[in-house]
Amino acid sequence: xxxxxxxxxxxxxxxxxxxxxxxxxxxxxxxxxxxxxxxxxxxxxxxxxxxxxxxxxxxxxxxxxxxxxxxxxxxxxxxxxxxxxxxxxxxxxxxxxxxxxxxxxxxxxxxxxxxxxxxxxxxxxxxxxxxxxxxxxxxxxxxxxxxxxxxxxxxxxxxxxxxxxxxxxxxxxxxxxxxxxxxxxxxxxxxxxxxxxxxxxxxxxxxxxxxxxxxxxxxxxxxxxxxxxxxxxxxxxxxxxxxxxxxxxxxxxxxxxxxxxxxxxxxxxxxxxxxxxxxxxxxxxxxxxxxxxxxxxxxxxxxxxxxxxxxxxxxxxxxxxxxxxxxxxxxxxxxxxxxxxxxxxxxxxxxxxxxxxxxxxxxxxx
Length: 366
Hints:
Shape: elongated
Number of domains: 2
Order of helices and strands: HHEHEEEEHEEEEHEHHHHH
Number of strands: 10
Largest sheet: 6 strands, mixed, barrel
Helix content: 40-55%
């Protein structure tokens, strides 16, 4: 540990003693980071924005619609529990009109019974304080019902009333059913009729196989009255966009890294020639070849880290000021690691060259 600290301190002192060469190395690395961030980084940020938009449209959703006579029941959720690749599943009854209990002649909003063990994703608590007696409404539904504070009750056409237990978080895969009011049924026995089944796959690539598995376990009395809609086309589009943008980004990053590494190697080769007397003196005083190599590599790594930090700050500032999307932190971190690694690797040949110089011959250099 002490040796590493001493080596780092010596490398820092050596970098400070060579301000011009150190500044050039730092600027080259910073310039490389800025170039990648303003080109590939901007592309990656745009890619992430596009993919987020596609994902927002529900690239992982599978929607099953069943007519009343189809014979699909809430028991299907128990069968779906054994299917791999499913992130979430929920079943819903047919819609029934309801009004604000205080305004019987008011605007009517569709209410559905909801079945499933993961309804908390919709904003419904796992354990209801009044099982079977509360309804949860989306913001749009609450507005139409005249209950913006989520306080009050709704009455169905059948006469059943439910208190408003809270507001729903309507996900994108249920946005088509807005305004949405759900009554969770924790006590479902498995024979309740289901008119709508929504399944979310864990990834867009699993939509097709999961859809096939879902169809195989529906067990509807009349499959002809069941229709399915998947987001497989959107999933394929997502993969196409990600693949095309990703290949372009990787090629550009590799080209910029290679160019920067070559420039660092040339700069350090010149630096070695300028400091050959210094290296000869170190060798004559007992410094090993490994120490010389380590000294140059640590020095380059320190300068590269400083260059990465400066480059990222500058590039992110430019992207933010111009209104362009900033890539995620993972991309910036990976770019920083690659930049430091490329610069350090480029310093290896000049470092080995410096370590192999004959100390006696180098000390004769005026």
